[in-house]
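A.,

Following up on our hallway conversation. Structure tokens first:
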């Protein structure tokens, strides 16, 4: 069974302060419409560039993919 990526979303996760228990909280900024053919290294570089524009500490970069299966 083959899978075809139909949708990608890039998430830039930053620290967002602390909660009532002094635990760190995080906020994710989502960027939809990422082309399925874009290399993952390029997505990481884009995430780092976006994070550098934000006034927050970078926690991580996430990538969510939606795929459909093709049966031959």
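Then the amino acids I'd put at each of the 72 positions:
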């Amino acid at each position: 069974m083959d899978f075809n990526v139909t949708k990608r979303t890039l998430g830039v996760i930053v620290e967002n302060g602390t909660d009532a228990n002094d635990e760190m909280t995080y906020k994710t900024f989502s960027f939809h419409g990422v082309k399925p053919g874009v290399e993952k290294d390029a997505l990481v570089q884009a995430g780092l560039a976006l994070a550098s524009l934000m006034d927050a500490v970078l926690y991580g970069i996430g990538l969510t993919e939606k795929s459909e299966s093709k049966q031959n």
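The beta strands are 2-18, 24-34, 58-70. Curious whether your intuition agrees with the design.

B.
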